[in-house]
Design a protein that fits this description.
1 helix, 12% strand, alpha+beta, two-stranded antiparallel sheet, 72 residues
Length: 72
């Protein structure tokens, strides 16, 4: 069974040529390789600039904790 390859840079599926970004070596073969589009492929859009939703949520939670700790 062949699994679809997804680009580690843009999270889009890869059709055609791809290069291995990280070899997923495991004795059982459970961990597959990580792929990315070949350099210059117009299908690779890259990741959007900016912080992830999870990072922003964690920062907001930390700021809330600090303000409660300081009694502000």
């Amino acid at each position: 069974m062949t699994f679809p390859r997804y680009c580690a840079d843009c999270d889009q599926s890869i059709v055609g040529e791809a290069e291995v970004a990280v070899e997923g070596f495991s004795a059982s073969g459970a961990r597959g390789d990580t792929y990315r589009h070949v350099a210059g492929d117009p299908a690779c859009t890259g990741r959007p600039a900016g912080r992830s939703v999870v990072s922003r949520a964690l920062d907001a939670k930390a700021a809330e904790s600090v303000s409660r700790f300081r009694g502000a």
